[in-house]
Design goal:
This protein has 290 residues and is of the alpha+beta class. The protein is built from 8 helices and 10 strands. An 8-stranded mixed beta sheet has the order 7-6-5-8-9-3-4-10, with no helix packed on it. It has a two-stranded antiparallel ribbon with strand order 1-2. Helix 5 packs across helix 6. The longest helix has 15 residues. It starts with 22 loop residues before the first strand and ends in a 19-residue tail after the last helix. 23% of the residues are buried.
Length: 290
Amino acid sequence: MSTSPAQPIIRKCGWCNQKDGKFRCTRCRDAVPPAMYCSKDCQKTDWQFHKKYCGKYSYTFDLTLVGSSNPPIKRTFDVPSCLRIFMTSVFRPSPSGNDYGILAMRDQVLRIIQRDSLEHELTLGSRGKIEFEEILKLKDVYGEDGRLKVLTTNPATGKAYPLLYLYDFGDHWEHLLEFRGQNLASAARPLVTSATGCAPVEDSGAIPGWNSVKAAFRARNPTQEQEERRQWARDVSGLGDRYNPLEEPNIIQMNYEGRWENHLEGFMMDSGEIPPRQPDREEDSDESDF
């Protein structure tokens, strides 16, 4: 039985997205996927955006929701090394002001917190080094010359310790974050490369409650309680009847650049780095109110 040779993958131009890419950026030629352009003009035009990550590294992580099953909720993603931790929706999924952080598992050697949580943190008597998420960059922790690398690396194996991340003290969503290595960046924002399991809706009631939500949607002859749970989940999700927790995540939607830009803008407004967006003012009406 013969097999046909694998066909080369043809990528569209990274700027116009109309013609096939013929020219590869030589500075980051080993990036996956590579930056390809149909002409030198398109490459030159795209440089103002491409230079933000060209030749720079991104870090690959596995993030697993502890206790999730059937299927486990897991994301594998690449994050540019130059990003500050607070900017990444993976590390800081909500600007809600909860006292959460990233915690190295061995003797609490590193605690990453918001600056305004310092006083509360000190009252807990936490051990180890405290860093502020507003200024800490990923390369400080995972870079070859990162100033905190010694704290997060197992001297026996040379590998980074897995980290625990707690989000929402009510539902107690505990995440296991594992560093998998570095590679050349292919974007200036985090990119999800694989995903399994639908993320829980807000206030599901931890893992047992989330399992009950999925059981309600799986039921062929749902009870009244399961019908009510289905409706509650649809309402909370904001998707209405389109919501289905049994569907696998859509990576294309997850990687939509506009979603990252909205997250980043929200975080920067929350931190005071940029002013809040002002609502559009309605044009003055020529008619009086009476």
